[in-house]
Amino acid sequence: MAPPKRLLIVDDNEDILSTFYEFFNSLGYEVKTAVDGFAALKVLRDKPDYFDCLITDLVMPNISGVGLIAIVKKEYPDLKIIAMTGYGDQPGALASEAEADLVLFKPIDLFKIEAKVSELIGQNDE
Amino acid sequence: MSTPLIGVSNSILKIKELINHVANTCLNVLITGETGVGKEVVAHNLYAESPRAQNSFVKINCAALPETLLESELYGYEKGAFTGAHKKRHGKFLTADQGVLFLDEIGDMPLTLQSKMLHVLQSGEFSPLGSDQDFKTDVWVIAATNQNLEERIQNKSFREDLYYRLNIIKIDIPPLRKRKEDIPALIEYYFRLYRSEYPTGHGIKPDADTLAKLTAYHWPGNVRQLQNCIKKQMVLNDWGKILEELPEDPEAAPRVSRENDTQNSDALFPNEANSERMKIISEFVDLSTSSEKLFEDISLKKIKKLASDKVEKEVITFVLDKVGWNRSRAAKILKVSYKTLLYKMSEFDVHPPMK
Fold first, then answer.
1. Does A91 contact B164 at a Cβ distance shorter than 8 Å?
2. Tell me, what's the ipTM?
3. Whole-prediction pTM value?
4. Contact B91/B128 with Cβ under 8 angstroms?
């Protein structure tokens, strides 16, 4: 059996974090969470090459999602990144510019995002 | 020479750690915090720890210059671009190439310049005033403001797109009153610094009681205000007076208003209040003349000059006395030129004591 896929989910809203955690956990993913970009960066630098996919909100204190994506794409180019943002937010465009693999607009359908995750990670395996 | 970020509070330690993690990324940074908290110190620390530390750190204050001047300072101009442009001048975007451009008070940048700034940040290109040539520039933009930019976006005086482009990394420095544990460390640091700058300063460090009072104070002007107090202590060596002169805390309003009440009741005896007032006035106006003549004599301009002369004379004498009548050192402490000091000494008839 293949090892579980590992996700890092970043959002400054604890409710969203726990919802995502429960959902992906129940589908057999190994999930870690971080409350802002800085916390996420520390987790990533602590365990480089550990995660398969990063799902991040964009508007957060200290290191924003856009900043996190820019740093991660430079330091860990293989890590897949999904950005989530409120509809019509400016940061969406910046996230694409920072080369997020996918930018999704809130509200987000969990099943849809899971499909995207497995699609992205699947591509990685081939 | 760059000032280290002084402090032991969690927020300062976290900022140091953040600087450490992001200085090598050269992503746009927005530094926020009240006036005097040390936004420029943080910017300088980012620069010093970055791969750009060997290149230039260029600062511009967006609030200090009128719009057209700010534009030509940022982008430069060609000869003949406008009346008075006698020769070509490089803008800060060019002088900061490969280095850091620190945009202080970004919240005060006029809207028209905000769109131009956004364009440069997006494309890395700009053209000087009066030029049709585009220049490519690679600057690391660090911006700072004491304003609430979210609010300014709401009332349409700050561009949302520019905000998000600057706000890739945000460093918020809390006011000093919310990190009181940093106060003793700051006092220690600046004491040592000013003592080396003014070796003749006689000010002694605060004792435990004074330190407790300084730590309890709310510091509306933050670190800068604290620095000024320590400088003042170097010259005055009188903590009691310095504490007394600190503006009161509006938060402590209930207690203060009670104090005011007692003052007001004092004012019910107009003689007392009046006598104090008359005492001050009599120093500058001859009150023994008729009221008609008196009113002729009173002129704010004249009194201002008399009052400021009187205080200046005392301060000059005091400082000269402290530095053993070394006039060039006194001029340095008073932050006036040597010539000005000599002029004032003769104007106020200040002489060294006879030996």
1. yes
2. 0.90
3. 0.75
4. yes
Cβ–Cβ pairs < 8 A, chains A and B = 43
What domains are there in chain B, each with its CATH number?
10-174 (3.40.50.300), 177-247 (1.10.8.60)
Question: Which residue stretches of chain B have pLDDT < 50?
Answer: 253-272
Cβ separation B160–A70 shorter than 8 A: no
Token pair, residue B350, equals 């200040």
Determine the pLDDT at residue B174: 97
Please give the residue range of the domain that contains residue A37: 6-110
CATH number of domain containing A93: 3.40.50.2300
Pairwise CB contact (< 8 Å): B168 & A67:
yes
Residue A3 is predicted with a pLDDT of: 82
B216 at the A interface (CB within 8 A)? no
pLDDT tens digits, one per residue of B308-353: 888 898 899 989 988 888 888 899 889 888 888 888 888 888 888 7
Question: What per-residue string of b and e applies to A47-75 under the rule 16 or more CB within 10 Å gives b?
Answer: eeeebbbbbbbbbbebbbbbbbbbbbbee
Distance from C-alpha of B150 to C-alpha of B160, rounded to nearest angstrom: 8
Count how many domains chain A has.
1
